[in-house]
């Protein structure tokens, strides 16, 4: 799993998402669950990596299950929850096993057919690479901004502020985010200028290995089987 | 500003940067929003950064931003998050473009009535294609509603309401193509007007942000000739910024030869940065600049630059990618030699986010060196590095001309650094001067106590009850998961009233984690942190924390309003600050040595040093029990550093405020914080995936 090319994993993720949305049913749910288990085994995901839901989420899930049961739709409810879970699990496994630096070149390669219709794929991949790099920095900045706000000891608001308070907070935070982003964008632009402007060449990509082809074949076969089984009516739901 | 009418073709560097950062901001809003309950409204806010992008740049950049942002959101948050970014791009893109073309809300509304039905039809089409998923979702909703109705079957009034709600849901879901299209059509004008309103409010405030690429002038002068920055001769060069009253450079003549190590010194505002611009290729207002070829910024054999903020220059996700970023076609970089020369040997695969400030600057030097530059300009590249890292970085810069055929021009506001130079250029008020008596060359290298770096000084016998008490406080992030890593080793200390404590430690020793625990923002995983005997987590705000990045802390539109908000004073939105408020702000500004006239200034118009003092003024005005400062000296010049040291000493001695300074750089803070605790080396290497 860790050795697979990012292209393979992203293509599989896309394929699974499409099949899950196009043919949801017990066949797809079973196949998806099997795939998630196999992938977690191949990726050696330890049990401690499984996210633990907070208490209120369990309460919500239980209430949902109870009302669906009373409305005679427990099977539908279970299906939709399982499908959500499978999609989230697939995304997490891909994110967990793929180095961030590989994502932008992989997306560029997967989208390369779009070049024939003059889509600036390389330009997008360039933006994507920098976007992925900025993402954790921005999340950290959000965390600091909200913390700084929490530390301001605000006495009980006077009547005239009660309604506008939320809007003021939202505009303040959006302004700080925007101002910080504009400055960071300028810094990035400058950093690019310093390196002699935007590159005109494509990033080098490695050829796919044999395991990549086997994985792609396996996952697509499974997807085709699910689609066929669902359409010919083997789906008990 | 990036936008010029009639711009065509590939994206420019500033457009790529803006698309990446603003799309990233939108993606993080969506991802954060999807984790919180009130999701729907929060996701609409993601349209605002995208609207800002469309307002400032061409349509081509908003499309690139939408593509990149949706992939990031899809990988991090799934299909829903990716779709949300696309929807927000449509709304933000339209609103931003309308604003860029100078039209008003009426245009937005008119467009919303066109785009609304169109998006409704797209939604219908998607739901029609994904019929099984649609049936599953609708079926779940129906059964949940039926279940809820049967649960309240015995309650008379609720029963009627539930029955009505159920039949309404049946009608809506039964004719879904109509209801979905109508829902989207009705939402679009409301959503787009909200984005418009937020955009105008935000733009009015960020209008002050003047960002320009100081090297952009370059582009106009980019003759096709080959790079040849040396030998560089300046004769009577003058430079005046557009709209400025006086020249920033008032007649500078100098020569830069091959393989030299030159140090350029001068106070803030002496024209150092302007001179760097000219050396890097900006065309002066008057005088002549002679070089054999083009300056060739970033070109092989041209001019390389290293800037002040370490993290601002990184483009790659790991070291190897950063080194190779943007290299010309067919150019094979000598990665190993260069990394060894800067002391980063064998770190090719290290993620850039795991590097310290000093290592990032070394990486910037390495990325410059792979291009075999003739001239390397280091623009205050040591200013934001800790004292130890600064010394070795300077040594590296000084040695470069001996190892590589390159001239290094190092800009510094610390006179100490000039001692290593082959030649010193000292700027005073836009002119070259001989280093005078007021120059900081004679500034003491170190304080008498600074030699003994890592030991814990015994607490002063104050005899008073401690204000702040840490008992065996340690922290591990994400315990019990594969991501678990210890960030702070167990630590105990007490802080008395009016006591000053400095906490030092290497990068990764847990300094920032400790700051968050001290301020009560983070509940320590082990041990307790007590303020006046009660856990500090229950008294958020009683311990003030000055964050390293002041720009994130100062959040209100003007200096005065921010200080008032920090002190917890409400200001009426219409009436504005009262006379009493104004006097209060004036007092707070005076404490940190800023003029009262700054009160009405927009926070976006402040320099880094001013901003840090404004943040401090607000924190002090709130009269906290303890003031914690995280890296307060980073990025300040010599006089600002001294001034800050004096202000802190005064606060402690006169107002008996308890102080904790967390820093790896304690010059100028010895009087403010005589006691010292060292956290030692980094706790643990983060586990590699």
Report on the architecture of this protein.
The complex is a heterodimer of chains A (237) and B (689). With 237 residues, chain A is an all-alpha fold. Chain A has one domain (6-231). In chain A, 73% of the residues lie in helices and 0% in strands. Chain A has helices at 6-22, 26-42, 55-70, 74-97, 100-110, 121-151, 159-162, 164-194, 210-231. In chain A, helix 1 runs antiparallel to helix 4 and helix 2 (26-42) packs parallel to helix 4. The longest helix of chain A is centred in the middle third of the chain and has 31 residues, at 121-151. Chain A is flat, with a radius of gyration of 23 Å. The mean pLDDT of chain A is 84. Chain B has 689 residues and is of the alpha/beta class. Chain B folds into three domains: 13-206; 228-442, Rossmann fold (3-Layer(aba) Sandwich), CATH 3.40.50.300; 468-678, Rossmann fold (3-Layer(aba) Sandwich), CATH 3.40.50. Helices cover 43% and strands 15% of the residues of chain B. Chain B has helices spanning 13-35, 39-45, 47-56, 59-77, 79-100, 105-129, 131-151, 156-174, 176-206, 217-220, 272-279, 319-324, 335-341, 357-369, 387-403, 511-518, 550-553, 559-566, 579-591, 608-621, 638-655; strands at 232-239, 249-256, 261-265, 286-290, 303-306, 375-379, 407-412, 423-428, 431-433, 468-477, 485-495, 500-504, 526-531, 534-535, 543-546, 626-630, 658-662, 675-678. In chain B, helix 1 packs antiparallel against helix 2 (39-45) and helix 7 packs antiparallel against helix 8 (156-174). The two termini of chain B are 40 Å apart. The relative contact order of chain B is 0.07. The chains are: A mainly alpha (237), B alpha/beta (689). At the A-B interface, helix 1, helix 3, helix 4, helix 5 and helix 6 of A face helix 1, helix 3, helix 4, helix 7 and helix 9 of B.
């Amino acid at each position: 799993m860790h050795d697979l090319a990012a292209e393979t994993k992203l293509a599989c993720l896309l394929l699974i998402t499409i099949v899950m949305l196009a043919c949801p049913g017990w066949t797809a749910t079973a196949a998806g669950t099997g795939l998630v288990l196999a992938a977690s085994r191949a990726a050696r995901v330890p049990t401690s990596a499984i996210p633990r839901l907070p208490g209120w989420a369990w309460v919500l899930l239980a209430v949902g299950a109870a009302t669906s049961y009373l409305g005679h739709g427990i099977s539908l409810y279970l299906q939709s929850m399982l499908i959500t879970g499978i999609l989230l699990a697939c995304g997490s496994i891909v994110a967990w096993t793929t180095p961030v630096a590989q994502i932008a070149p992989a997306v560029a390669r997967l989208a390369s057919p779009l070049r024939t219709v003059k889509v600036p794929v390389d330009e997008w991949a360039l933006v994507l690479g920098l976007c992925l790099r900025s993402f954790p920095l921005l999340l950290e900045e959000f965390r600091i901004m909200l913390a700084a706000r929490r530390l301001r000891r605000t006495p009980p608001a006077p009547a005239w502020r009660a309604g506008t308070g939320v809007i003021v907070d939202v505009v303040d935070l959006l302004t700080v985010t925007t101002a910080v982003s504009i400055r960071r964008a300028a810094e990035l632009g400058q950093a690019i200028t310093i390196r002699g402007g935007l590159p005109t060449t494509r990033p080098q990509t490695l050829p796919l290995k044999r395991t990549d082809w086997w994985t792609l074949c396996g996952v697509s076969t499974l997807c085709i089987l699910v689609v066929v089984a669902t359409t010919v009516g083997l789906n008990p739901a | 500003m990036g936008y010029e009418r009639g711009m065509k073709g590939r994206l420019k560097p500033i457009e790529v940067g803006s698309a990446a950062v603003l799309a990233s901001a939108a993606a993080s809003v969506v991802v954060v929003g999807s984790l919180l309950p009130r999701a729907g409204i929060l996701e609409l806010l993601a349209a605002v950064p995208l609207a800002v992008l469309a307002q400032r740049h061409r349509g081509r950049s908003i499309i690139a931003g939408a593509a990149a942002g949706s992939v990031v959101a899809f990988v991090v948050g799934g299909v829903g998050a990716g779709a949300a970014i696309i929807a927000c791009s449509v709304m933000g893109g339209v609103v931003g473009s309308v604003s860029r073309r100078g039209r008003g809300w009426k245009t937005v509304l008119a467009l919303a009535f066109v785009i609304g039905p169109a998006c409704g039809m797209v939604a219908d089409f998607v739901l029609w294609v994904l019929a099984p998923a649609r049936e599953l979702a609708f079926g779940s909703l129906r059964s949940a509603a039926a279940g809820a109705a049967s649960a309240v079957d015995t309650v008379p009034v609720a029963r009627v309401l539930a029955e009505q709600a159920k039949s309404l849901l049946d009608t809506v879901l039964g004719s879904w193509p109509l209801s979905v299209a109508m829902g989207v059509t009705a939402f679009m004008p409301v959503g787009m007007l909200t984005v418009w309103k937020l955009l105008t409010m935000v733009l009015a405030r960020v209008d002050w942000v003047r960002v320009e690429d100081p090297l952009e002038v370059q582009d106009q002068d980019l003759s096709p000739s080959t790079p040849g920055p040396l030998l560089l001769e300046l004769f009577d060069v003058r430079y005046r910024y557009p709209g400025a009253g006086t020249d920033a450079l008032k007649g500078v003549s100098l020569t830069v030869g091959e393989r030299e190590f030159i140090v350029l010194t001068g106070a803030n505002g002496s024209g150092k940065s302007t001179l760097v611009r000219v050396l890097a290729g900006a065309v002066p207002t008057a005088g002549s600049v002679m070089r054999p070829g083009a300056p060739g910024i970033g070109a092989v054999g041209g001019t390389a630059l290293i800037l002040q903020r370490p993290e601002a220059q990184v483009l790659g996700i790991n070291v190897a990618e950063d080194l190779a970023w943007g290299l010309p076609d067919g150019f094979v970089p000598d990665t190993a030699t260069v990394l060894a020369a800067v002391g980063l040997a064998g770190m090719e695969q290290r993620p850039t986010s795991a590097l310290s400030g000093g290592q990032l600057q070394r990486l910037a030097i390495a990325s410059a060196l792979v291009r075999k530059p003739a001239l390397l300009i280091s623009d205050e590249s040591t200013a934001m590095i800790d004292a130890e890292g600064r010394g070795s970085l300077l040594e590296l810069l000084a040695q470069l001309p001996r190892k590589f055929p390159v001239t290094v021009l190092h800009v510094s506001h610390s006179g100490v650094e000039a001692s290593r130079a082959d030649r010193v250029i000292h700027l005073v008020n836009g002119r070259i001067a001989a280093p005078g008596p007021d120059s900081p060359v004679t500034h003491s290298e170190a304080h008498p106590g600074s030699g003994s770096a890592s030991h814990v000084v015994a607490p002063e016998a104050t005899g008073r009850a401690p204000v702040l008490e840490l008992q065996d406080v340690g922290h591990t992030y994400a315990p019990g998961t594969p991501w678990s890593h210890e960030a702070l080793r167990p630590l105990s200390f007490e802080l008395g009233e009016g006591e000053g404590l400095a906490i030092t430690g290497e990068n990764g020793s847990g300094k920032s984690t400790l700051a968050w625990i001290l301020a009560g923002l983070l509940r320590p995983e082990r041990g307790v942190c007590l303020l006046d005997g009660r856990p500090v987590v229950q008294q958020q705000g009683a311990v003030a924390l000055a964050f390293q990045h002041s720009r994130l802390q100062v959040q209100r539109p003007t200096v005065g309003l921010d200080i008032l908000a920090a002190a917890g004073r409400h200001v009426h939105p219409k009436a504005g600050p009262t006379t009493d408020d104004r006097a209060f702000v004036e007092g707070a500004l005076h404490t940190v040595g800023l003029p009262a006239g700054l009160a009405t200034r927009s926070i976006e118009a402040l320099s880094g040093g001013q901003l840090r003092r404004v943040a401090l003024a607000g924190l002090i005005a709130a009269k906290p029990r303890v003031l914690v400062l995280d890296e307060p000296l980073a990025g300040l010049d010599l006089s600002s550093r001294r001034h800050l040291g004096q202000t802190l000493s005064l606060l402690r001695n006169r107002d008996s405020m308890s102080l904790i300074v967390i820093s790896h750089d304690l010059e100028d803070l010895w009087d403010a914080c005589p006691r010292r605790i060292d956290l030692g080396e980094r706790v643990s290497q983060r586990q590699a995936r």
